[in-house]
Write a sequence for this structure.
């Protein structure tokens, strides 16, 4: 399949959620050579709520696990919506440097690319209905997995922004009243994602969460107001000269505006 | 408000067939105004646009096609008469020429730099006596808006203008659906030609952006692809991966270690100046021998406080004076009691700090007001102009036509529209196409 065909399967015209599919990893599908074997498997899926319950899912899972789990959820009636937003590598350069033998990118996105490629055929066969509720897929390692980025690495860390998701109004309009956050080994949302969840909470959506390892039962939760929450506060900070650091944010990863006009 | 509904014929002159009442922005209540210089075509059919959108995403590095609930790519183009385009293109060229002269003069007048709201560390480097780091070229974008008094500009994106894929790749694809229309140019292609010409045939070129921001990555990735097509070796990097040795820039990454032929930064000058001194960021401005685009002096006309120093210059800046609305220091304007003034920060990037009370929540306006009062040197007050909406298939929309100049020559446009007069990061990108005059 070409990358166009693969993208069309993950972002079909008939799904209201396709507009939010992030294209950057699909644009680089031709770079994932040699293919990386998809080794991730899903565990028991008993935690999965029925897709008829007015619930959207947010899977914040590491690497290709999100794709694999998203495909399993597709079998249960959810529409997986990939929100992977990291540049894998520019111009087909190898994952490991020919010169140094070291990995060249801070975040290894190639397993995600391969999972999307190999999962496309499976997803196409499911023929999901247009009204399938969304399962948004994020890479829990997107911010660099809390390790220091080496000086000579390609810095492809990424942030999840509030603008990466539909609004609460849009979700309500499509029958969604609740959101379930699924993470591998933590319950608290990552700092960047907390902004989006807080927006939804303020918009009237009920939030639930669960952990896969060790497994926890779904529980209601509320997101406290994140530090620097709200665009206006960022305006004020920028006006007094507090700008994002080279790593992004005011010493952390924070939603903010881009460089250019 | 009277408005046509549904699709209109391809040849319909929508601006003539729709009467739109605008009751704010300086236009008297009850008046009916629309722009007569611009019109919208009908949208291309949904399946064709879906395919086009996919190409923009997968081939054209358009990686932010959705911002919240807003689809940022328009399925219909904006159309302007050739004669109108020639006029604003000529004005953009005049603006570029005047800006470059003024920047050179301001660099000689240290007191004036202090007015611009630049970080002190950046001011210190700009006034240094070391030779200015050369530049492989200069790209600027001037944001034009139709008004009852003719075209006006809201600002110049002088330091790190973006929008190349939208103004080039997306616009070219849209033009393929309208054989009687044509793009205004290919700004991304011309800019890439200019950079490539400054390097060796297979020259190594670093393109810099801040990590983590896809809307920034997509700009340099698009330019990198263009440079790659021209035989260059482009490398995406961040500023602290550049090592300066005797003024020459070297890239220090696992992918490439060695000297660079040129650097393109999509990293604002004031952000560079806040990096640790140990990385030698001053070489991007002064003392460097490797060409860097845009030149560091670009931050001068990028500052929205640039107009505050005009009266102290020998350069007359007639085009700027004619096209930019009256701009004052916040301490010298009645913005707090007169809503015909807006506020914005000196180094406003994507329209993110453009502040008009009527379009803001009270709390946000209060914080803006507080900030402008506490740190007035970082803000400007600017007289609002009446933005004339253009009638489109989705209703009246405010339009901004960003005209690029590369080395002083107009090279194309990046157009956007919005439901309200503030054109910011959540505006919709729209192809600007030219038609022959009747």
């Amino acid at each position: 399949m070409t990358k166009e065909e693969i993208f069309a399967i993950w972002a079909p015209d008939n799904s209201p959620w396709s507009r939010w599919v992030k294209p950057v990893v699909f644009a680089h599908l031709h770079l994932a050579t040699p293919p990386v074997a998809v080794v991730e498997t899903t565990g028991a899926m008993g935690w999965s709520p029925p897709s008829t319950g007015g619930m959207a899912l947010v899977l914040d899972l590491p690497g290709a696990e999100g794709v694999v789990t998203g495909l399993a959820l597709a079998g249960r009636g959810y529409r997986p919506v990939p929100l992977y937003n990291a540049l894998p590598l520019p111009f087909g350069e190898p994952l490991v440097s020919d010169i140094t033998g070291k990995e060249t990118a801070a975040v290894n996105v190639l397993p995600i690319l391969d999972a999307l490629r190999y999962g496309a055929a499976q997803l196409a066969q499911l023929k999901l209905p247009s009204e399938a509720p969304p399962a948004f897929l994020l890479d829990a390692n997107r911010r660099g997995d809390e390790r220091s980025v080496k000086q000579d690495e390609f810095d492809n860390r990424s942030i999840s922004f509030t603008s990466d998701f539909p609004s609460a109004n849009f979700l309500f309009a499509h029958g969604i009243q609740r959101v379930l956050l699924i993470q591998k080994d933590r319950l608290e949302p990552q700092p960047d994602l907390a902004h989006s969840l807080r927006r939804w909470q303020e918009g009237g959506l009920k939030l639930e969460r669960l952990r896969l390892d060790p497994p926890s039962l779904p529980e209601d939760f509320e997101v406290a107001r994140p530090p620097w929450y709200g665009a206006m506060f960022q305006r004020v900070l920028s006006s007094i000269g507090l700008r994002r650091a080279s790593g992004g944010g005011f010493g952390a990863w924070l939603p903010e505006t881009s460089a250019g006009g | 408000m009277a408005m046509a509904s549904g699709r209109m014929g391809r040849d319909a002159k929508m601006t003539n067939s729709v009467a739109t009442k605008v009751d704010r922005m300086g236009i008297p209540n009850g008046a009916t105004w629309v722009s007569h210089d611009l019109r919208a075509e009908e949208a291309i059919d949904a399946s064709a646009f879906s395919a086009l959108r996919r190409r923009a995403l997968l081939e054209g590095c358009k990686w932010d096609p959705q911002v919240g609930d807003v689809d940022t790519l328009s399925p219909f183009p904006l159309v302007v008469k050739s004669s109108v385009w020639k006029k604003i293109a000529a004005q953009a060229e005049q603006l570029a020429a005047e800006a470059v002269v003024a920047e050179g003069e301001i660099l000689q007048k240290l007191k004036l730099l202090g007015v611009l709201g630049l970080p002190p560390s950046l001011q210190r480097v700009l006034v240094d006596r070391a030779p200015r780091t050369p530049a492989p070229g200069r790209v600027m974008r001037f944001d034009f808006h139709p008004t009852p008094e003719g075209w006006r500009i809201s600002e110049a994106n002088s330091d790190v203008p973006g929008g190349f894929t939208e103004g080039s790749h997306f616009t070219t694809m849209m033009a393929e659906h309208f054989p009687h229309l044509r793009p205004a140019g290919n700004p991304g292609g011309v800019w890439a030609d200019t950079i490539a010409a400054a390097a060796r045939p297979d020259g190594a070129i670093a393109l810099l952006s801040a990590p983590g921001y896809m809307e920034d990555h997509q700009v340099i990735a698009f330019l990198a692809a263009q440079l790659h097509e021209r035989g260059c070796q482009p490398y995406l990097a961040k500023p602290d991966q550049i090592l300066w040795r005797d003024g020459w820039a070297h890239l220090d990454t696992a992918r490439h270690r060695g000297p660079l032929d040129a650097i393109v930064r999509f990293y604002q000058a004031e952000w560079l100046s806040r990096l640790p001194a140990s990385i030698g960021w001053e070489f991007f401005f002064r003392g460097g021998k490797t060409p860097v685009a845009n030149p560091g002096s670009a931050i001068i006309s990028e500052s929205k406080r640039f107009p505050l120093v005009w009266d102290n210059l020998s350069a007359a800046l007639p085009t700027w004076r004619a096209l930019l609305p009256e701009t004052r220091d916040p301490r010298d304007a009645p913005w707090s009691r007169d809503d015909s003034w807006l506020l914005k920060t000196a180094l406003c990037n994507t329209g993110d700090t453009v502040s008009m009370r009527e379009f803001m929540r009270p709390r946000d306006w209060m914080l803006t007001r507080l900030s402008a009062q506490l740190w007035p040197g970082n803000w400007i007050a600017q007289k609002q102009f009446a933005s004339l909406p253009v009638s489109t298939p989705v209703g009246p929309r405010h339009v901004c036509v960003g005209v690029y100049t590369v080395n002083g020559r107009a090279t194309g446009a990046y157009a956007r529209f919005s439901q309200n007069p503030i054109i910011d990061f959540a505006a919709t990108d729209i192809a600007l196409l030219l038609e022959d005059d009747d």
